[in-house]
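Researcher: We plan to redesign the surface later, but first we want a full-length starting point. C-alpha cells attached.
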C-alpha cells in the first residue's frame, strides 16, 4: 500500500512538473448541448473541427511570437464572432422579438481587471467593447444603449442595422434554429501566455427567444468568465441562470486556490456534481497557472479544442472535440 502511494505521488509530481514546462496554452469552446447528430455527420462535423482548429491556430500565431494573452483571446473570439457556425456575432440566435442582443466579457488574471457588455445591438464585435470597458473606463460592466454609446465614443466598428447579425438559418428556418439552440452556443477562449499571465474571454448571442432584456452568465464576471494568475482562467457555456447561481467560473478558481484541488478535480466536481444536465446543462474550459487544462461538460457534447507548446520543443500539441472523441485536424 505504501509503495503504491509513493508511486502515485511520484506520478502526480511528474505530471505537475510536466505542466509547468508548458510555454503557452490555449483552449477554446464553441458551445455545449445535444450534439450527437453533429458528430455523426461527417460533413457538419468537419466544418466544426476545421473552425475550432482555425481558432487555435490564430491564437498559436500570436502566442508563439510572444504576444499577450489578451491579444490572443481577442483575435480568437473575433474569429468566432465572424463565423455563423457559432452563437456569437453573425451567428447569434434571436430574441422573442426577432432581434439580436449580444453579450461578452474579458478578464485579465495579472491584475484582475475585467470588462463586460450586455444587450448590444449594433456593435460588430462585442468582445472589443468588453475590452474597451476594461481598458478605457473605470467600470466593469455596461449594458444596452449606454454600452453602445460608449462603444461609439471609443471608435469601435458598428453596424447600421441589427439585422446584420442574421443568417439564413435565423431568417428562414426558425424551427431548425430552435432545435439547434439547445446547444447553448457560446464561444470562449482561455490562455496561459509566455509571461505566465492568464486571460479569459467569452462572447454570446444568448438564449433563443429570450425576453425582457435577459442576460446570461457570459458577461457576468465570476459566473461565466473569470481569470486570476494565482489560480485559473475559465470560460463557461450552458444554461446561464444556473451558472450564475453557482458562480461557476469563480467557484472553480476558489476550489483550486483554497481547497487545493487539481484543475480537473475542481472542474469535474462543479460540472458533474453541483450542476447536472437538468439543472445547469453545459460545460466549461479552463487553464491553470501551471498549464494544466480542463474541458468538462455534462451535455451530449461541447465544441472544444486545445493547443499547447512545451518549453524546448518546437512542435505544438493540439486536439479538437465535439463528443467524447478528440481529433487532430489534418492527421
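Model: Full-length starting sequence:
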Amino acid at each position: 500500500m505504501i509503495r503504491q502511494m509513493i508511486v502515485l505521488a511520484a506520478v502526480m509530481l511528474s505530471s505537475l512538473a510536466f505542466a509547468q514546462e508548458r510555454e503557452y496554452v490555449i483552449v477554446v469552446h464553441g458551445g455545449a448541448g445535444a450534439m450527437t447528430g453533429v458528430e455523426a455527420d461527417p460533413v457538419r462535423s468537419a466544418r466544426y473541427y476545421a473552425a475550432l482548429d482555425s481558432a487555435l491556430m490564430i491564437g498559436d500565431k500570436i502566442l508563439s511570437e510572444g504576444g499577450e494573452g489578451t491579444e490572443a483571446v481577442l483575435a480568437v473570439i473575433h474569429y468566432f464572432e465572424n463565423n455563423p457556425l457559432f452563437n456569437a456575432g453573425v451567428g447569434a440566435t434571436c430574441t422573442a422579438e426577432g432581434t439580436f442582443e449580444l453579450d461578452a466579457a474579458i478578464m485579465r488574471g495579472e491584475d484582475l481587471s475585467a470588462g463586460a457588455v450586455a444587450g448590444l445591438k449594433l456593435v460588430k464585435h462585442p468582445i472589443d467593447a468588453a475590452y474597451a470597458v476594461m481598458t478605457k473606463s473605470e467600470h466593469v460592466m455596461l449594458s444596452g444603449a449606454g454600452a453602445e454609446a460608449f462603444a461609439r465614443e471609443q471608435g469601435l466598428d458598428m453596424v447600421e442595422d441589427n439585422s446584420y447579425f442574421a443568417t439564413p438559418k435565423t431568417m428562414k428556418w426558425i424551427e431548425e434554429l430552435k432545435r439547434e439552440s439547445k446547444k447553448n452556443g457560446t464561444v470562449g477562449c482561455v490562455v496561459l501566455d509566455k509571461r505566465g499571465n492568464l486571460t479569459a474571454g467569452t462572447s454570446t448571442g444568448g438564449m433563443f427567444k429570450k425576453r425582457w432584456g435577459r442576460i446570461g452568465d457570459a458577461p457576468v464576471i465570476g459566473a461565466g468568465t473569470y481569470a486570476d494568475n494565482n489560480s485559473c482562467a475559465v470560460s463557461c457555456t450552458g444554461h446561464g441562470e444556473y451558472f450564475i447561481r453557482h458562480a461557476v467560473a469563480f467557484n472553480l478558481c476558489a476550489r483550486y486556490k483554497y481547497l487545493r484541488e487539481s484543475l480537473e478535480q475542481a472542474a469535474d466536481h462543479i460540472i458533474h456534481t453541483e450542476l447536472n444536465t437538468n439543472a445547469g446543462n453545459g460545460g466549461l474550459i479552463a487553464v491553470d497557472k501551471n498549464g494544466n487544462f480542463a474541458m468538462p461538460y455534462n451535455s451530449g457534447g461541447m465544441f472544444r479544442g486545445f493547443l499547447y507548446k512545451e518549453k524546448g520543443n518546437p512542435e505544438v500539441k493540439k486536439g479538437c472535440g465535439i463528443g467524447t472523441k478528440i481529433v487532430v485536424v489534418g492527421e
